[in-house]
Write a structure and sequence with these properties.
Elements (H helix, E strand, L loop, with lengths): L1 H10 L6 E6 L7 H14 L3 E5 L2 H7 L4 E3 L27 H14 L3 E6 L1 H23 L5 H6 L4 E6 L15 H22 L2 E6 L6 H10 L3 E3 L9 H14 L5 E6 L12 H12 L3 E5 L11 H20 L7 E6 L2 E6 H16 L3 H7 L2 H14 L11 E7 L6 H14 L3 E5 L2 H6 L3 E3 L27 H10 L4 E6 L1 H12 L10 E6 L15 H18 L6 E7 L6 H10 L3 E3 L7 H15 L5 E7 L8 H11 L5 E6 L11 H24 L1 E2 L2 E2 L7 E7 L2 E6 H4 L3 E2 L4 E2 L7 H8 L13 E2 L4 H4 L6
Parallel strand pairs: 1-2, 1-4, 4-5, 5-10, 6-8, 6-9, 7-8, 11-27, 12-13, 12-15, 15-16, 16-23, 17-19, 17-20, 18-19
Antiparallel strand pairs: 2-3, 10-11, 13-14, 21-22, 23-24, 25-26
Helix pairs in contact: 2-11, 3-4, 4-5, 5-12, 7-8, 8-14, 8-23, 11-20, 12-13, 15-23, 19-20, 20-25
Length: 781
């Protein structure tokens, strides 16, 4: 009963409210997913929702540009790039007369809640509009355009912003809508160019977008292992021309067949003079005589379908934006909805705009160190890691330590990137670095050899596992593993893999009492498409797998657009873990996603069939249902197909698709490349510290719980969790952590698919402040 009341309360939370959504400024992939989420969540809480076409121009022009939306207005748009409601740069809105007309148009429709999706310019404009609102209404009353009563009734304008900008140049937000998709486009181009450059031994200068912000250039350089990078925040030292040419020549003489130089369009030198891609090309040709080509990526970066990350991010932010409008009072400042780690937060709009302006000011005044710090800790981290890994600097001194690296479990995209960065940081630290082929089995059989800096060149963008991987657990060959550890004097072990990697290290730790040789430092980097390892929110490879599954579902949905009234039942991987099917479900707008973690009965299945039957009566005559491979012992994919087919007889027909191993393959996404690279670096730095701590009289002896950990991203920061602690929160039978953060995403999946659900579970984002101090906090990404 209480549940029904709660539901009623929420369904009427927005009753009588009217809200409008507009997209403004440069377009970004994922804007449509945001428009869809705002529209549906608005209707869900009982508000009237209006779409404003052509950005602020439509707001000023009014008329046909402002239309009320219904649930189906935003159907089948989540996979489209750009913005279906259009965006325009608008001169009129920058004038008071323009804003006066805009205010009049909003009042005519009774709209006092505005959700603006755009860059910092668009959001600043929205804030000015809000501060002037009272005086604009007074003017309208004076001019006799509206009555005093109307002005009283609509006396307050609430504003919430979502940042849509591929540059990721808005301070305070981890990721802006469109950034991840733009990185996808850039990495696709780099991967393609790499193959042709290697054939001809060419040098490529790639120019990416970012007039004032080097984020895209920086992350794509980090994710592709580029030889040289130019970003506006950190101009090269004087005399960089000599240094760059020297380094490119050196790379070639070591046997590399290509060079890649990445340059942000806003690149400058120490004196603020622009550095153009053609200038760089001419330099290389004149000094080194290399065959050099320039590729300017341009608007390709804004185009194409949004990535899974952008679709989920935009949906979460859209939902949160509506809640922020529902909860707004005259005293709350205009806010921006953002993600911090994987938590929604609200930030005061003007604080973000202020810091964003401070960065530009610091750059104009040539305070470059400060500009990088103001961009936030993760930007600074990316920059430092790029510099560490791009070029080998001889180690200060040889360290006495040895490190062995292996892959365990099923292949996952990103494993190779993690091995590469771990090997290189190990060498930087002066350690002897070994790699092991074929997992714990290879370790037992002594398939182990020392590697150098250049042995891992070109590994970043490769899918699967170059070292080879096996599912064998140590307990089947413990004696032989101990023998190898003794023979090679291995003092630290980095295991990159899935649930078996975690379980394997746990077995080694539990055998420490028996074998002193296992009293060494151990670290697990979780890498599995299932995302089922305890101690982390994201495992390497899961982003790539979600994108692969999503692309397949997009195509499956498209195939149904010709045939009416068809329901697809799609089976995803993931073992018992429903992460893959839930997140893919959100990204493709699925009608349901069945997972083991949320038990379902025949009644639930019946409700789903009825829901689809109702849907077939509307204009949208297709359905998509996802099923995790192990979600139910008896309700198999075949069973669901038979049930849906017979229940839907005469109303819709069914088809099955089992996605299978395409979810394990493919080149890693930018997120997985970047994340793997960082975890590889952080893991080895942590292991080096621990080795120092336990080094006594020329030997390593580690038996404390905190000397064998899983590294992972937890909420907002990278954390190390002892495997013995994690054992207490693991369900070993189903190979799952007992608590999983992503289960709260399922509310969003159901709401967006038009199920009546209670949002009592929904956790609203907190208002946080953006200052220089908060920007210096270490974020995981």
């Amino acid at each position: 009963m209480a549940l029904a009341q709660e539901l009623e309360k929420l369904r009427t939370a927005g009753a009588g409210m009217a809200m409008a959504v507009l997209t403004s400024g440069g377009d970004a992939q994922g804007m449509n997913a945001a428009v869809r989420a705002v529209t549906r969540m608005g209707i869900y809480v009982g508000a009237k929702v209006f779409l404003i076409y052509e950005g602020y121009e439509g707001l000023v022009e009014g008329g046909e540009n402002i239309k009320q939306a219904n649930w189906l207005s935003v159907s089948n748009i989540i996979q489209l790039g750009g913005t279906i409601i259009g965006s325009a740069r608008c001169k009129a809105f920058t004038t008071r007369e323009g804003r006066l007309r805009a205010a009049y148009n909003l009042v005519q429709h009774g709209i006092t809640n505005l959700c603006v999706i755009g860059g910092d310019g668009s959001l600043t404009g929205a804030n000015i509009f809000r501060t002037e609102w009272g005086s604009l209404l007074e003017d309208l009353v004076k001019d006799g355009q509206i009555t005093e009563d109307v002005a009283q009734k609509y006396c307050q304008l609430n504003i919430v912003g979502l940042v849509g900008s591929i540059d990721n140049d808005f301070c305070g937000t981890d990721m802006t809508i469109g950034t991840d998709s733009a990185l996808h486009r850039i990495m696709e181009v780099i991967d393609a160019i790499t193959t042709t450059a290697q054939s001809h031994q060419r040098t490529f200068v790639l120019e990416v977008m970012g007039r004032h912000c080097g984020y895209l250039a920086l992350v794509s350089a980090l994710a592709s292992g580029a030889d040289w990078l130019f970003i506006p925040e950190s101009p090269p030292e004087d005399g960089w021309e000599d240094l760059m040419c020297e380094r490119l020549g050196e790379t070639r003489s070591r046997g590399s067949r290509l060079n890649i130089i990445i340059i942000a369009e806003g690149a400058i030198d120490r004196n603020g003079k622009s550095i153009s891609s053609n200038y760089v090309k001419d330099l290389v040709v004149q000094r080194l005589g290399f065959d050099t080509r320039v590729t300017v990526l341009g608007h390709v970066q804004r185009g194409g379908t949004p990535s899974a990350f952008d679709r989920v991010l935009s949906s979460k932010m859209g939902m949160e934006a509506v809640m922020a409008l529902v909860e707004a009072t005259p005293d709350t400042p205009a806010c921006v909805v953002s993600l911090s780690g994987n938590q929604s937060v609200r930030l005061p709009l003007m604080e973000c705009v202020q810091v964003t302006k401070d960065v530009q000011k610091a750059m104009d005044e040539k305070r470059f160190e400060e500009a990088i710090q103001l961009r936030g800790r993760s930007f600074e981290n990316n920059w430092n890691i790029y510099k560490l890994l791009a070029h080998q600097k001889p180690a200060q001194q040889k360290s006495p330590f040895t490190l062995a690296i292996l892959n365990v479990g099923a292949p996952a995209a990103g494993m190779n990137a993690a091995v590469r960065s771990a090997v290189r940081i190990g060498i930087c630290k002066g350690h002897t670095v070994y790699v092991v082929n074929d997992g714990f089995e290879g370790l037992a059989n002594g398939q182990i050899h020392e590697v150098g800096w250049h042995d891992v060149a070109g590994w970043l963008g490769r899918g699967g596992s170059m070292l080879g991987t096996k599912r064998t657990l140590p307990k089947t060959c413990m004696e032989k593993i101990v023998e190898t550890v003794r023979k090679f004097n291995i003092q630290s072990l980095l295991v990159i893999g899935g649930f078996e990697a975690y379980e394997g290290v746990l077995q080694l730790v539990e055998a420490r009492g028996q074998y002193e040789e296992l009293c060494i430092i151990m670290c697990v980097i979780p890498a599995t498409i299932s995302n089922n390892v305890p101690g982390t929110d994201f495992s390497l490879g899961s982003d790539t797998a979600v994108n692969a599954a999503m692309e397949s579902c997009d195509r499956i949905k498209q195939s149904a657009s010709g045939t009416k009234r068809r329901v697809f039942i799609v089976e995803t991987m993931g073992g018992y873990c429903g992460y893959l099917s839930t997140v893919t479900g959100i990204a493709v707008g699925a009608d349901a996603a069945y997972v083991y973690e949320e038990p379902f009965t025949i009644h639930d299945l019946k409700a789903n069939v009825e829901h689809l039957t109702d849907k077939m009566k509307t204009d949208i005559q297709r359905g998509l249902v996802l099923r995790n491979e192990k979600c139910h012992e008896h309700y198999t994919t075949e069973f669901l197909y038979n049930l849906y087919s017979s229940e839907g007889k005469g109303i819709f027909d069914c088809r099955i698709n089992v996605l299978g191993h395409l979810q394990q393959g493919g080149a890693p996404t930018p997120f997985d490349r970047n994340y793997s690279t960082k975890l590889g670096v952080k893991a080895v730095l942590w292991m080096s510290e621990k080795l120092q701590e336990v080094y006594r009289k020329g030997r390593v002896f580690a038996n404390a719980a905190d000397t064998a950990c899983v590294i992972g991203l937890r909420k907002k920061a990278v954390a190390f969790s002892p495997v013995t602690e994690l054992k207490k929160v693991t369900d070993f039978e189903h190979r799952l952590p007992q608590e999983q953060w992503w289960l709260n995403l399922r509310l969003m999946l159901k709401m967006l698919a038009n199920y009546q659900i209670s949002l009592t579970e929904y956790i609203s984002g907190k208002m946080e402040h953006v200052t220089r101090r908060t920007l210096s906090i270490e974020k995981g990404f």
